[in-house]
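Recap from last week: sequence in, structure out.
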Amino acid sequence: MLRDLADWSARRPMTLPEGKHPVPHSSDVRMVVWAFAGTDLVTGLVIDAMLPPAGRAVHLVWVVLSLVLSLGFCAMTARAPHLLDSAVLRLRTGPFREVTIPVGSLGSVRVAHGSTRGYGLRHVPDEDGAVACTIGGATNLVIELEEPLPIRLRNGESVLAGRVYAAADNPAEAARLINRSIAGGARP
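Predicted structure tokens:
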């Protein structure tokens, strides 16, 4: 996270291996975290003015730590997009695990807005054989697999999944790229 924050702050471009296509995700969650970070900074300054001088140093450390974690989370999710190449689709959820699906195992991808409770790589309640791989609860991609794959969840449990719910900043473009890769296009 700290490396991503340093690279993001310095505006260093992301370097992706040859043939990897990024699929950005989680911009909606980042906007919420930005709002909380801004509110935290303003609130921190107000509270700091009310604290006795002896407590200001501890409070300052707390505010800086909170801002570093918030901005680090934003940097980490912005600099770790989903990745697609001719062999695999790698769905990432920042610090909450990731899943790698061979392109040969992908059946189809469609845009469908929904939500599942929780965050990270998790089982979808009330739907056998389905997992969600998102930073937040919102999903906008449904990935059907040709055959169920064993997937290890965030809690360590392993399940056979035939459907994966994911999120992308531009779901229509992501679905088009992934479906083109499934169809065996020369380049996704």
